[in-house]
Write a structure and sequence with these properties.
The chain contains 10 helices and 10 strands. By secondary structure, the chain is of the alpha/beta class. The structure holds adenosine-5'-diphosphate and magnesium ion.
Length: 277
Amino acid sequence: MTADVTTTLPPVPAGSGATGLAELQARDITAWFGDRKVLDRVSLTMPAGGITALIGPSGCGKSTFLRILNRMHELVPSAQLAGEVLLDGEDIYDPAKRLIDARRSIGMVFQKPNPFPAMSIRENVLAGLKLTGTKADRSTKDELVESCLRKGGLWTEVKDRLDAPGGGLSGGQQQRLCIARSLAIKPRVLLMDEPCSALDPTSTRVIEETMLELAQEVTIVIVTHNMQQAARVSSECAFFLAAHGQPGVIVEHGETRAMFENPQDQRTSDYVHGRFG
Ligand SMILES: Nc1ncnc2c1ncn2[C@@H]1O[C@H](COP(=O)(O)OP(=O)(O)O)[C@@H](O)[C@H]1O
Ligand SMILES: [Mg+2]
C-alpha cells in the first residue's frame, strides 16, 4: 500500500482555504424523511473553538442534525431540509457552493470506528487528500501523517508500524486513527456522533483528552449519551427532545455548567440527572 495519493478532483480553488477557528450556526433547521418531520426549526450557534455537546434521548434527531451540518443528510433519497447552516457566516447550502467544500471544512467521526481495514495506518491518515484533490509530496505527507497522529493522540503507539493495516488496531486506536484521518484535510469543524459509545473507559478518556487539545484549533460538535462525558468535555450543551410522535426540538441550550447545575427547564433537569432517557 505505497500507492501515491493522486488527484481525482480539481485542485482547491484560491480563496477557499480559509483557516482559523470558525463558528458554525444552524438557523431554523427543519428536516423530513419522506412525510415525516423529524426536526422542527432548530437553531443553534456552535462557537468557534468550543466543544458543543448535543444530548437527549434516542430518536430525537441529534444524528440527523449533525448530518445536516456537513451536508450528509441530502444523501438519503427521501430526506428534505429547510433552514440555513452558516460556517463563519457563509451558507454551506448556497447553490453556488460545492458539496466537497462543505465536507472538506466540516469533518465527521462516527460511532463505529471506520478506518479502511486493509489500508496501512499511514494511508488511512492520507486517504482524505485523495478525496479532496489535495496534492502533497512525500515529505509533506510524512509530516502530515505525524502531526495528525500526534493530534489524534495515537502517534507514540503506532510510529513504528505505520505500514501495518489500520484494521489491526484496537477499537479505541481505530477511532483515534479516524480522528487523525479527519484532521489531515484541515477541517474547521469536527462533528463526532457518539465517538466513544463503542469504546472502553480508558480509550474513552484518551479520546476526551484528545478532544480538549483539538478544540484549540477546530470547533467541535459531539453527540453523546454519556452525561459525565458532556460535563467533562463540552463548553456548551444543547438538549434535544421529541415528544411522542413529534419532531425533535432544542428544549434548552447554554453553557454546560449552567445546563447541569441550574437548568431552566424541568425536562432538562430530569434528563441530565438521569431520570429518563
Ligand atoms: N434514513 C432515515 N430514514 C427514515 N427515517 C430516519 C432515517 N434516519 C433517522 N430517521 C428517523 O429520524 C428520527 C431521528 O433520528 P436520529 O437523528 O437518528 O436520532 P438520534 O440520533 O437522536 O437518536 C428517528 O425517528 C429516526 O427513526
Ligand atoms: Mg444518533
